[in-house]
Design brief:
The protein is of the alpha/beta class. It has helices at residues 40-50, 65-76, 120-124, 140-153, 169-174, 182-189, 194-205, 242-255, 260-275, 287-297; strands at 3-7, 11-17, 32-38, 54-62, 80-87, 93-99, 105-110, 132-136, 157-161, 177-181, 208-212, 218-222, 225-229. The protein has a single domain (3-19, 30-110, 130-297), classed as 3-Layer(aba) Sandwich (UDP-N-acetylmuramoyl-L-alanine:D-glutamate ligase). It is built from ten helices and 13 strands. One of its GO terms (biological process) is phosphate-containing compound metabolic process.
Length: 298
């Protein structure tokens, strides 16, 4: 079983399905609702586990009911939470999420800055037998430890680069693969021209780089060569968690030894299936379904 270590944030999402995004200070009625686990690394870990990999999550939560919910959901998905720290000081993170009729989402997240960002404990408890490591920029200190470990172990070190990206400078310097969102790439490069921004990211970091851009697909650059892997056309219901699930699938595929373009196509399929279902990461497919989708699209 391919083993992926993931470092970053884990939260609870309170998700409301609405006809359109609220714009006034009034009461609104949701068409549907869900309380689900969320967070970049946690969602990616669930994707890895459902797709047949072994997911080892490194994260920080409070010693509170939200933290207990986060860990219980992840363990129920088969995620190894041995390295999820329950901290006495600080509250666990949670989000209020609206998903409109077109599947677009609006997120208001609470993150308690009293919850320690320290990652020294992770350095002392880093496994030595993983096939790839994925970290998100929401926990810069953990990402730095994770990317240094990936380089030391000689395995892919994938950074999920979301704004504010520059907070994770050390992780950027050690990552072998940096996968930006379009927003994250604009934030990193300080420009709207995404192709130019990607070239800037490649020149500055020396890493293999890409950015995900929704229905437009994924654009990548490796040295002087690059390209685009198109997204799959599906009926969008809910985009919440799609990027996180994409990163988990991409990391698993690299850990399995797939080439980058092949790994992107696999991740695109997984994210596309997720987008057809309401409820954030609850819509993440298993490996059989993802492989069936890819065969049908061939």
């Amino acid at each position: 079983m391919t083993k992926i270590l993931l470092a970053g944030v884990a939260v609870i999402d309170i998700v409301m399905s609405v006809d359109e995004m609220p714009r006034k200070a009034e009461k609104y009625r949701a068409r549907d609702a869900a309380i689900v686990g969320g967070g970049c690394a946690a969602n990616a870990a669930v994707a890895v586990a459902r797709l047949g990999g072994e997911a080892l999550l490194c994260a920080r939560v409070g010693r509170d009911p939200i933290g207990a919910m986060i860990v219980a959901e992840l363990e129920a998905e088969g995620v190894d939470c041995t390295r999820v720290r329950r901290l006495d000081k600080g509250r666990s993170s949670f989000s209020s999420v609206f998903v409109d009729a077109g599947g677009e989402r609006q997120i208001v997240n609470f993150r308690d800055m009293e919850l320690s960002f320290d990652a020294g404990w992770l350095e002392a408890d880093m496994p030595q037998n993983v096939d790839a490591i994925l970290a998100d920029t929401r926990w810069p200190q953990g990402a730095a430890v994770a990317m240094r470990a990936a380089r030391r172990l000689g395995v892919p070190g994938i950074l999920d680069a979301e704004a504010p990206v520059r907070e994770a400078e050390e992780a950027l310097a050690h990552a072998s693969h940096i996968a930006f969102s379009a927003q994250g790439l604009r934030d990193f490069a300080g420009m709207d021209d995404l192709d130019r921004a990607l070239a800037t990211a490649r020149a500055e970091t020396g890493a293999w780089v890409c950015y995900t851009n929704g229905a437009k697909g994924v654009f990548f650059l490796d040295g002087a060569s690059g390209g685009r892997v198109p997204a799959f056309a599906v009926d969008i219901v809910d985009t919440l968690g799609a990027g996180d699930v994409w990163h988990g699938a991409f990391a698993l595929a690299l850990g399995e030894g797939q080439a980058e373009a092949e790994a992107i196509r696999f991740a695109n399929a997984v994210a596309a299936i997720k987008c057809t279902r309401f409820g954030g990461r609850e819509g993440t497919p298993d490996r059989i379904e993802a492989d069936r989708f890819l065969r049908a699209a061939a």
